[in-house]
Fold this sequence. Notes:
Low-confidence stretches: none
Distance between the termini: 39 Å
Shape: globular
Amino acid sequence: MFYATDTNAHGLRHDPFKAIVAPRPIGWIGTKGRDGSLNLSPYSFFNIVSDTPKIVMFSSSGRKDSLRNAEETGVFTASLASRHLAEQVNASSVSVPYGRDEFEIAGLSPKMGCLIDAPYVEEAYTALECRVTEIIQPRTIEGGHADAYMVFGQVVGIHIREEIIRDGRIDMSIMRPIARMGYHDYCDGGADVFQMTRPSAS
Length: 202
């Protein structure tokens, strides 16, 4: 099948776009408002974009609380969404008024960063402390802007729990990161791990 996205006439029961761009890592974004309120929300539009320096990005569909706090304070955290915390990740996605604490709603412990004034999930296997470098609203081919806001953050600190380290490496079978598929589907990144070595030119 083929369909043009301007009409989106795919004929399926649900839009397949996000099922095609999958799996997507989940950025479990922690922020603190100017009023001192804590916020925690999962974003499946999330990824690493640079290793030197270390930069990650999450994209907010519309102006949500994580975006507001990151704009106002210039910092955010990204905790690892793993299989053992999957229910809490889902619980923290609830839509509540600004100022409601999703850490409390999900039964999680907020821990403030060592280098930034933003909370991360203490129970998470890993967490990144990030300083905002830029916020971009992507342009469309028609010359307008998408209803999305890309928040880029340079990683200034990294937390790793000792129990996931084996032989000097993070053991994916223990960490078991979850990722978003299409619809209501998720996958477990530690369930079927295999290795390949990049070929060298002959």
